[in-house]
Specification:
This protein has 268 residues and is α/β, with parallel strands linked by helices. The chain has nine helices and twelve strands. Strands 1, 5, 6, 7, 8, 9, 10, 11 and 12 form a nine-stranded mixed β-sheet that branches. Strands 2-3-4 form a three-stranded antiparallel β-sheet. The longest helix has 16 residues. It is globular. The N and C termini lie far apart (59 Å).
């Protein structure tokens, strides 16, 4: 029998290790969908740095799945295209102020929830004319295309309001600043980020309404129960080790009144 040379044996062993999937380095990159224009939640800053609560949650989950920060590829998602990016495998999961709803669960699955926000209104700092949701019936309101906030206003709160739907929240903030609309609506966590953003000091204020409860979930492709279970385990660990609360305080500020971490719901 011919004995293989040492070099050939080493090559075979190296090939076996490479194809076995051992080690974090074999995982490649992980594409995660986040918002790029939400201060405090998901923001792409100058230089390509990402910040925000959803970014911190996504990074923690990725770590628990075996990925290092440099293996993460953050991809921009808008409210109207989150389901599409998941369905066409453009991203592995979405952490983008993604409220869990029965309508959305027809198309995607959710891990979580991992945060509870409340729909509120953002107005100019000197505005005293909007004190309740019904006041919007004679006002111009901005929201984002595909958001649950716009649907909530139209169907329940102020059916006579003039609603301008724009692609992103930053566009709504500009419209509010330029007097093209009288208010914008979305989750208080997102609005609080804009109030506190550098350059916006003294320009805007929250009205302090709790117009709805929004439970943020991590969206993933329909039927991927294994990934759903792993992400739920990571979210539970993040709460238990204190990382969740630390991320909330870091991103929303010491004065932000936040609900306790919601219980993970099995079967989202």
């Amino acid at each position: 029998m011919k004995v293989p040379q040492a070099g050939a044996v080493a090559a075979v062993i190296a090939l076996a290790l490479t194809t076995s999937g051992c080690g974090e380095e074999d995982k490649g990159t992980l594409a995660i969908g986040i918002k790029f224009d939400q201060p405090g939640v998901g923001l792409r800053e100058p230089g390509g740095v990402f910040s925000g609560f959803d970014v911190d949650v996504a990074t923690y989950v990725a770590k628990e799945l075996g990925y290092k920060p440099e293996q993460i590829e953050f991809k921009r998602v808008d409210s109207s295209d989150r389901e599409l990016l998941l369905q066409y495998n453009e991203v592995k999961f979405v952490a983008a102020s993604y409220s869990i709803s029965e309508k959305r669960k027809e198309k995607v699955d959710f891990a979580g929830p991992y945060f509870t926000a409340h729909q509120d209104l953002l107005v100019r700092a000197d505005d005293t004319t909007i004190t309740k949701a019904e006041d919007l019936n004679s006002k111009r309101l901005c929201s984002v295309t595909g958001s649950t906030s716009a649907e909530n206003v139209k169907s329940k709160l102020a059916p006579k309001a003039s609603v301008l739907e724009l692609p992103g929240y930053s566009e709504c903030v500009v419209a509010l600043q330029d007097n093209l609309v009288d208010a914008m609506t979305t989750d208080n966590s997102i609005l609080a980020g804009y109030v506190a953003q550098k350059g916006n000091e003294g320009k805007f204020k929250l009205t302090g309404h709790s117009l709805s409860n929004e439970n943020y979930g991590i969206g993933l492709k329909k039927g991927d129960k294994a990934l759903q279970g792993k992400i739920n385990a990571a979210l539970k660990k993040m709460v238990q080790d204190g990382s969740w609360e630390a991320a909330v305080k870091k991103n929303f500020g010491p004065n932000y009144k936040f609900d306790p971490a919601p219980a993970i719901a099995a079967g989202n």
